[in-house]
Amino acid sequence: MFISNAYAASGGMQDLTSFLPLIVIFVLFYFMLIRPQMKQAKEQRNMIAALQKGDEVTTGGGLVGKVTKVTDNFVALEIAEGTVVNIQKHTVQTLLPKGTIKSI
After folding, report:
1. 52 SS3 class
2. pTM score > 0.70 for this model?
3. pLDDT score, position 35
4. Cβ contacts of residue 95 below 8 Å, gap of 6+?
5. Alpha helix locations (H) across the chain?
6. Of 95, 47, 87, 92, residue with least CA distance to 71
7. Could you tell me if 44 and 57 are in contact, meaning their C-beta atoms sit under 8 angstroms apart?
């Protein structure tokens, strides 16, 4: 009926070793998935905040154009000469190098 001292003393260490794989998986998950995604989201926010008139961008819908006006939530995008569309800022995906539109 009594538990031996050796068995009772090793019970705490056994609990820790059973959780060790879970802890390792969580740490790997954080460094391989969560952290890079947070870094990419931060870079995207900074790029959108730095948009200015004259930048060439690509949207999430595949439009390529030149920014003609920037407001708090919207961007006026010239997709062809004389054709300007208003898009939401968060749909801007990529900031292109100057002159990219002419080379397309």
Report:
1. coil
2. yes
3. 96
4. 47, 51, 55, 56, 57
5. 5-29, 35-49, 100-103
6. 87
7. no
